[in-house]
């Protein structure tokens, strides 16, 4: 079954200019078909298309008449019309989104290149740019026995093999290699003929030529409005196998041994049923892409939703593998999937708990409601939000596009056992390091904004003499150009869904961080003491502040979100209120409670001090001075400890008076000046029994030099 051009010679050249060839019956009886062609008889040799209708060689004698010529009466120019080939009809059905002019242009293009499309299952191409090599080194041949096929499918397998033989795709083999076949049902109900080459792949030396990353190909679609996808027809069959490696491709069906060989002499062929041209939205590698962004393929997600509860580790790993492919679409993926991942660990027993069931359903829900991720813009600054919890870390990469902050990708990671023992500050820093490393290909070489809800990390790169792991992390981060911005937890919802929880009160790392940088305190204030003291709720504190005349005016203005009152408004108030008014810019509300935000001169230390009502001052001073943890220290130490959490007008004077009037301190601590002892007589003993020595000088020099 081949086609070729032969040179025909007209018997009476030049009698008429144009003619249409017509094949005589004796040629068709030989199984040869001659195509009708418009020719010019003034040519010495006329090209004639001849087609062999079967797989046996045909011979035409030199003097055979292969065609006759009929004169053309007239040639009439007709308006240009494009009759679409039958095998392209399915492709053109997907062009309804185009207008008439655009559809006409696409039809013209497809008709011009219609030979690139496969017309039937047997019409596959051949890539003449390379040959497929199977490098197994000196490994002995692998021979596998054929698998049992159901009786209902044996005939189908034999039919597919015979079809490939007729199409010149395979040939009989007599080599020592053999692999079994697998028949797989396609979506349209037809059968895909596959060979199980896993054993062959294990001994084949892999080609290191890199395949493009799926994420990189999706990122490259920024700015695209129209999309086209091309699919090769039986792409595996379109690459020629080296003659010396063909025996390695041998497969057996139980009825014979076959191997792949050189394919038809043609270029690559496309499958018209699977090609999509000029679409606003197409499915690509399990993703649906459009000008708006990337989203998950509903067909793949339906498989996740319909997935039954896994009964074995193998089933669970298959489910997690499909879900992991779309993890960039799911916020906090690792945290949600952690109970399921625990079941796949080596030393874990497969015990499906209520927590696993919740995780299983949460993953399904997260994938069905996943957002549309936007394409990254190189002309826009990136925004990275990070957060950490006791179980994992997470991040959101986004950009401001128009008036909206659009998500590009999510990142999450479960914490290992040592990492779960980190303090809050180290976990938050770990989240920053891992997130930046994950999005390295986006962030490196570009300035970006890093947002965190952990206040102490604003001075991340200004640590004095960092050591060990912290030093290595900071050194790694210095490769990037970013600005750190603190954001309240209520505003940090896009990354804060990890539900960060504080670590134990005895954590040494948090204690050090608090002393160095001042971590935000909870509005449910606890006085630091070893005694049992009930915390103050925000409602109690706010009520006490409103009852304090010195604080009331300032707090009411802050609650109304008013601007700083003028001096004329504040002039009638008390001196204490005026001093609070002078601190207006450093006073802030947290859950309706007034705090003072204090920063050191170098900006490296920050503390949030509760504005303490006068009615609460004695209770605080009893805890910071009189209690066991207070230790009845002096004025400076008590003042320093009190300032760590609280502030009020005349704080220093109140601390001095409290320490001076403390009865315990007065009873146990003597006066600073020691009394001199009384003069007494003593008995004079023997010579040199007692000696006294003193050092005097230097003395002035006399006139004689002494």
From TrEMBL:
InterPro entries: DNA/RNA_pol_sf (IPR043502), Integrase_H2C2 (IPR041588), Retrovirus_Pol_polyprotein (IPR050951), Rev_trsase/Diguanyl_cyclase (IPR043128), RT_dom (IPR000477), RT_RNaseH_2 (IPR041577), Spumavirus_A9 (IPR001641). Residues 87-146 form the Peptidase A9 domain. Residues 85-112 form a coiled coil. Gene3D superfamilies: 1.10.340.70, 3.10.20.370, 3.30.70.270, HIV Type 1 Reverse Transcriptase, subunit A, domain 1. GO terms for molecular function: aspartic-type endopeptidase activity; endonuclease activity; RNA-directed DNA polymerase activity. Residues 613-669 form the Integrase zinc-binding domain. It is an enzyme of class 2 (transferase). The keyword Coiled coil applies. The keyword Heme does not apply. Residues 352-449 form the Reverse transcriptase/retrotransposon-derived protein RNase H-like domain. Its EC number is 2.7.7.49. Keywords: Coiled coil, Endonuclease, Hydrolase, Multifunctional enzyme, Nuclease, Nucleotidyltransferase, RNA-directed DNA polymerase, Transferase. Residues 184-256 form the Reverse transcriptase domain. GO terms for biological process: proteolysis. Pfam families: Integrase_H2C2 (PF17921), RT_RNaseH_2 (PF17919), RVT_1 (PF00078), Spuma_A9PTase (PF03539). This is RNA-directed DNA polymerase. It comes from Araneus ventricosus (Orbweaver spider).
């Amino acid at each position: 079954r081949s086609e070729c051009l032969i040179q025909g010679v007209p018997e009476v050249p030049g009698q008429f200019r144009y003619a249409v060839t017509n094949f005589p019956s004796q040629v068709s009886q030989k199984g040869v078909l001659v195509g009708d062609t418009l020719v010019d008889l003034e040519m010495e040799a006329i090209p004639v298309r001849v087609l062999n209708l079967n797989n046996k060689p045909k011979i035409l004698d030199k003097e055979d008449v292969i065609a006759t010529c009929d004169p053309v009466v007239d040639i009439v120019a007709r308006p240009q019309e494009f009759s679409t080939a039958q095998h392209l009809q399915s492709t053109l059905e997907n062009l309804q989104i185009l207008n008439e002019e655009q559809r006409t242009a696409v039809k013209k293009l497809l008709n011009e290149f219609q030979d690139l499309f496969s017309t039937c299952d047997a019409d596959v191409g051949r890539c003449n740019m390379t040959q497929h090599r199977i490098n197994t080194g000196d490994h002995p041949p692998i021979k596998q026995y054929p698998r049992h096929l159901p009786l209902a499918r044996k005939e189908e397998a034999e039919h597919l093999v015979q079809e490939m033989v007729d199409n010149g795709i395979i040939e009989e083999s007599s080599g020592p290699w053999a692999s079994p076949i697998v028949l797989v049902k396609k979506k349209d109900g037809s059968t895909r003929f596959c060979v199980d080459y896993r054993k062959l792949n294990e001994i084949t030396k892999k080609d290191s030529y890199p395949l493009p990353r799926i994420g990189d190909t999706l990122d490259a679609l920024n700015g695209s409005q129209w999309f086209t996808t091309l699919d090769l027809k039986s792409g595996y069959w379109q690459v020629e196998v080296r003659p010396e490696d063909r025996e390695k491709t041998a497969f057996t069906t139980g009825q014979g041994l076959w191997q792949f060989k050189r394919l038809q002499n043609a270029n690559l062929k496309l499958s018209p049923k699977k090609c999509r041209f000029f679409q606003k939205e197409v499915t690509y590698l399990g993703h649906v892409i459009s000008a708006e962004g990337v989203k998950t393929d509903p067909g793949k997600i339906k498989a996740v939703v319909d997935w039954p509860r896994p009964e074995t580790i193998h089933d669970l790993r298959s489910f997690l593998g499909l879900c992991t492919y779309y993890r960039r679409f799911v916020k906090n993926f690792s945290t949600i999937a952690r109970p399921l991942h625990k079941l796949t660990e080596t030393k874990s027993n497969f015990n499906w708990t209520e927590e696993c069931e919740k995780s299983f359903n949460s993953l399904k829900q997260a994938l069905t409601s996943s957002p549309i991720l936007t394409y990254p813009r190189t002309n826009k600054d990136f925004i990275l939000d990070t957060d950490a919890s006791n179980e994992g870390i997470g991040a959101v990469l986004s950009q401001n596009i128009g008036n909206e902050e659009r998500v590009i990708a999510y990142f999450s990671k479960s914490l290992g056992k040592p990492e779960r023992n980190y303090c809050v500050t180290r976990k938050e820093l770990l989240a920053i390091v891992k997130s930046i490393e994950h999005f390295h290909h986006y962030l490196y070489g570009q300035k970006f904004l890093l947002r965190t809800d952990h206040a102490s990390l604003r001075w991340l790169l200004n640590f004095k003499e960092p050591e060990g792991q912290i030093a290595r992390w900071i050194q790694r981060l210095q490769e990037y150009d970013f600005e750190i911005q603190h954001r309240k937890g209520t505003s940090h919802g896009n990354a804060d869904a990890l539900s960060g929880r504080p670590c134990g009160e005895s954590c040494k790392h948090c204690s050090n961080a608090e002393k160095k940088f001042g971590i935000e305190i909870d509005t449910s204030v606890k006085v630091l003491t070893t005694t049992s003291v009930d915390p103050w709720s925000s409602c109690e504190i706010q009520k006490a502040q409103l009852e304090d005349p010195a604080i009331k005016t300032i707090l009411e203005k802050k609650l109304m979100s008013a601007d700083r009152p003028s001096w004329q408004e504040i002039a009638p108030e008390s001196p204490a209120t005026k001093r609070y008014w002078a601190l207006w810019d450093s006073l802030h509300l947290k859950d309706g409670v007034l705090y003072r935000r204090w920063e050191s001169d170098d900006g490296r230390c920050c503390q949030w001090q509760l504005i303490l009502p006068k009615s609460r001052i004695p209770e605080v001073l009893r805890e910071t001075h009189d209690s066991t943890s207070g230790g009845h220290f002096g004025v400076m130490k008590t003042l320093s400890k009190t300032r760590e959490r609280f502030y009020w007008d005349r704080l220093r004077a109140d601390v001095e008076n409290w320490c001076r009037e403390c009865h315990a301190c007065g009873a146990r601590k003597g006066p600073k000046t020691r009394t001199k002892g009384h003069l007494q007589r003593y008995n004079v003993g023997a010579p040199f029994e007692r000696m006294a020595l003193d050092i005097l000088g230097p003395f002035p020099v006399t006139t004689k030099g002494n």
